[in-house]
Amino acid sequence: MLAGLGGAVLGAALACVVAALTVPAALAGVPGALDDLVPGAEPAIEGHSAAAALPFATVSTRGPIIPGSMVSAAGTFASATASRSEPREGDDAPPAPRPVLPVKGVVPHCGDFACPRPGHRHNGLDLTAPAGTPVRAAEDGRVALLRDTGGYGNFVCLQHRRRLATCYAHLDAFDDGLAVGRLVLRGARVGTVGSTGVSSGPHLHFEVRRGPAACVTCATDPERFLT
Fold first, then answer.
1. Could you tell me the pLDDT band of residue 199, with boundaries at 50, 70 and 90?
2. Would residue 177 be called left, alpha or beta, if left means φ above 0 and alpha means ψ between -120 and 50 degrees?
3. pLDDT tens digit string along 9-18?
4. Distance between the two ends of the chain, CA-based, in angstroms?
């Protein structure tokens, strides 16, 4: 399980049971519980097939690619020649240190990886937090997708080593200076918690995709990535 959840795990499990046994209308007050209620609710990425194995360089063409710059955990820009190496597609070396939870001090609630429900597609982990709470990169990566998607609201995906991508949805706002192609270090802010798009309350929808960032069918259990 995720580090730091402690006794809140039981509460999360009970929330999942309630979500599985009640109709959607009963969940209207739970942030994220009504998100992505039908298959295919994830936003379509223009020009890309969801199942296509796209190379990183073709994932997105929105915004300039800015070589030689990155965002540090302190939110400042630094030279890409810093001691931490850049992520490379196909690099099988394990990342160090361990990935971080994008939003701290919150409890995950229901998604397919926590409590699957028939006919309900929800490929991530919803983390409830007050609007404006900083959202941080789970691992070093380059910005691959950065846009307002509709269903996911303000949405950013980072491409990492080992052909993994992490995605952060329903953001209230993106962090200043964020742009496609920019290197973001583990722990650096990518935005703030919000309720944009199809959302029933402030929360972070967090996804981990094993493949290109644009591959919406490549989602894997985020807890395996974080622990």
1. confident
2. left
3. 344 444 444 4
4. 7
Task: Report the CATH superfamily, name and number, of domain 8-226.
Answer: Glucose Permease (Domain IIA) (2.70.70.10)
Of 60, 47, 140, whose CA–CA distance to 93 is shortest?
Answer: 140
Q: Which residues contact 104 (CB under 8 A, 6 or more apart)?
A: 4
Q: What's the predicted TM-score (pTM) here?
A: 0.60
What mean pLDDT, rounded, does the chain reach?
67
